[in-house]
From TrEMBL:
Sorted UniProt keywords: Germination, Lipoprotein, Membrane, Palmitate, Signal
One GO process term, biological-process aspect: spore germination
Main localization category: membrane
Lineage, highest ranks first: Bacteria, Bacillati, Bacillota, Bacilli, Bacillales
The protein's name in its UniProt record: Spore gernimation protein KC
Top-level taxon: Bacteria
Length: 403
């Protein structure tokens, strides 16, 4: 009898601990937002573009069925409001399901808005939402509105937000002219002492109207597509400049985000005839202050391979290899120096020298921190040193062009 009462007591005691589906969300009641575009209208309101997945279409295209060609894999809805919350609520008048942001992996800001208003006012609304993930990629539309990028249909990667994310990843690893920044990265850099912010740019190439049509996906050479293009420089949260080419690569090199890139080296008076691809590199920055004036130091060590020769070079000769290494080191030093001078010209330290000064010279920083970007960083002396090494030359030492 006592045993029965004990079992009954345990059941009553454990019942309140059993959870239920009080917060359940049926998939058929949710609209999965894969990307969010943010612009400003002429009357000063926020214009939000919601890129929503069409589950049936995406599943059909992934399985090789015909569903992917009957309707687009995503649908874009737009809504306006005085803030992000109001615009999101107003979107319910267009969408038959509740907007769900847990799968949002891309935030796009229009260039005009980034220049005129900046991005700081947006951060609170995005970071405060418990569903929104700060790991979402953050990009700025280069030369267009955010809506244009969000509405573009892309081949190969059926979901446009995946196309942008994957392109940034492979570009950073292989080319070194872009960086992939998350919303969290932008938040940290905006509040870092004496540091500017870098955000990747993406551009719509081709006709805007054609990019929104399904026929754009049914061509072997699409007339409209999305391309990673440039690095946006933010000062006080506002877009002030775009970095391209050697300036972009030099900047990525200084912040130690180079995973792989190629250099074309001059040789014996001929331009860009030796192709060198990096395998690994490590860059360190430091600061020193003397008599109230800072000096910026950059040291980099890079290793890589010779991938192509357009002139006969005896790579089995150590003297020739050393000459190539010196020429490569000078070229990297030039790119780094040009990138830093560009930052000094605009009065914004997006490399992290100010953060290094804050950590290692706290007493001096208290005196100069408020004037770092406006007075001290633009006038600071810069010293760059690079060690470059050739580790491999491919399947042959002697050039095919040699006699």
């Amino acid at each position: 009898m006592k045993r029965k009462w004990l079992i009954f007591f345990l059941i009553v005691l454990l019942t309140p601990l059993l959870t239920s589906c009080w917060s359940k969300k049926e998939l058929t009641d949710l609209a999965l937002v894969s990307a969010l575009g943010i612009d400003k209208t002429k009357d000063g309101k926020y214009l939000l573009s919601f890129q929503i997945l069409n589950p049936g279409t995406v599943a059909g295209s992934l399985q090789g069925g015909g569903g992917g060609t009957e309707s687009p894999p995503v649908t874009v809805y737009q809504a306006t409001g005085d803030n992000l919350t109001e615009a999101s609520r107003r979107a319910s008048g267009h969408v038959s399901r509740r907007l769900y942001y847990a799968h949002t992996n891309l935030v796009v800001i229009g260039e005009k808005m980034a220049r005129e208003e900046g991005v700081e006012k947006l951060i609170d609304g995005l970071d405060r939402d418990p569903e929104f993930r700060t790991t979402a990629t953050f990009v700025i539309a280069n030369g267009s509105s955010a809506a244009d990028l969000v509405e573009t249909l892309t081949p190969v990667d059926k979901i446009p937000s995946d196309k942008i994310n994957k392109t940034l990843e492979i570009t950073e690893k292989r080319w070194g002219h872009n960086i992939k920044s998350s919303l969290k990265d932008v938040m940290v850099n905006l509040k870092a002492p004496g540091k500017g912010t870098l955000v990747s740019g993406f551009k719509l190439v081709g006709n805007v109207e054609n990019s929104k049509q399904l026929m754009n996906l049914q061509q072997s050479a699409p007339k409209s597509t999305l391309r990673s293009d440039g690095i946006a420089v933010l000062k006080d949260g506002k877009l002030i400049d775009w970095l391209y080419g050697d300036k972009a690569r030099g900047t990525v090199w200084v912040i130690d985000r180079i995973h792989g890139t190629d250099f074309n080296i001059d040789w014996n008076g001929k331009k860009e005839v030796i192709a060198y691809q990096t395998v690994r590199q490590k860059t360190k920055i430091s600061t020193h202050i003397k008599n109230g004036m800072p000096t910026l130091f950059v040291h980099s060590r890079v290793e890589g391979d010779i991938s192509e020769l357009d002139v006969p070079v005896e790579l089995s000769n150590p003297t020739e290899v050393v000459k190539i290494q010196h020429a490569l080191a000078k070229q990297i030093e030039s790119d780094i120096g040009e990138a830093i001078r560009n930052g000094q010209k605009h009065g914004v330290d997006y490399f992290g020298f100010g953060s290094d000064m804050y950590r290692n010279h706290p007493q001096e920083w208290k005196e100069i921190g408020d004037r770092w970007n406006s007075e001290y960083f633009p006038k600071a002396a810069v010293k760059v040193s690079v060690e470059a090494y050739i580790r491999r030359t491919g399947l042959r030492n002697r050039s095919f062009l040699s006699k």
